[in-house]
Design brief:
The protein is mainly α. It is built from twelve helices and two strands. The chain is globular and about 55 Å long.
């Protein structure tokens, strides 16, 4: 992990999770790279809060123009957030029809705890982002924030039963390992993280920090008029999707297969009949 990434995660930890970590000195150019990283991962507000908590540190040096750009961008994101639809308990879906039926049954239970359902949906949302798009920084921040702020109200025994029904236990372990690796959580702070963080899960967490911003929706198959050959719009994106499916198969095999074929079927819809 390079210095820009290290400071990027430090600022999120300082701003959102109450850490007091020292920021490493960087050049103006590298602070600009960190700003771009915050834009890319849609965590402008979170990194800004880290800057505010750390601005008195001796090693934190941004130009006046950079501070102005941050303030302007944070304001724009805040205005955008006000117009977005509230997705607090939106009905997320799984691509495996059997498990999706189980999920909808869980969500339809009005007697179950709302905070616990929110945490379950956040865990699923992180998983879907990992499978389809790559490193889920913003989604992991949401998961960490949910744990950090609502820890006392969540029924973790119920959550464990739900994850067993949905076969999400191994994926939840991976997500917990990422919270430990990237955001400084202690394993004891994550009740669904059973035992010590496995080395392979920690390795995957580190690997995910090397973000390429290649998204699954960037590839589709097409066929030009009068052409017998089928083309793919982005071969590297398709290969990236294949690699992700293979890499995370052991964590959630029941969803990996259906998720890949659903994406593949969607890509075929661009071919002319």
């Amino acid at each position: 992990m390079n210095i820009v990434q290290r400071n990027f995660y430090r600022l999120i930890r300082n701003g959102i999770f109450g850490h007091q970590e020292l920021i490493e000195p960087m050049s103006v150019f590298k602070w600009s790279k960190l700003f771009q990283l915050a834009i890319m991962h849609e965590v402008v507000q979170q990194v800004w809060e880290g800057l505010q908590h750390s601005k008195n540190q001796f090693m934190l040096h941004l130009t006046s123009q950079q501070w102005e750009l941050w303030e302007k961008t944070v304001k724009e994101y805040a205005e955008k957030a006000e117009t977005e639809e509230d997705v607090f308990l939106r009905a997320d879906h799984l691509t495996n029809p059997v498990l999706n039926h189980q999920l909808q049954t869980i969500l339809d239970d009005e007697h179950s705890d709302v905070s616990t359902r929110q945490l379950l949906l956040t865990i699923i949302h992180v998983a879907r982002h990992i499978l389809n798009e790559g490193v889920p920084v913003r989604q992991l921040v949401e998961l960490g924030t949910c744990l950090y702020q609502q820890h006392e109200t969540i029924d973790f025994e119920m959550l464990q039963r739900w994850m067993k029904r949905l076969r999400f236990e191994q994926m939840a372990q991976l997500e917990g390992a990422m919270l430990v690796q990237m955001f400084g959580f202690n394993a004891a702070d994550i009740p669904f993280l059973q035992g010590k963080v496995k080395k392979d899960a920690a390795a995957v967490a580190l690997e995910l920090t090397e973000f390429t911003n290649t998204r699954s929706r960037d590839f589709y198959f097409s066929q030009d008029s009068g052409d017998i050959f089928v083309h793919t719009s982005n071969g590297s994106a398709m290969l990236g999707h294949l690699r992700r499916s293979a890499r995370y198969f052991r964590y959630i095999p029941s969803e990996i297969v259906t998720n890949f074929f659903r994406s593949f079927a969607h890509s075929l819809s661009h071919i002319e009949e």
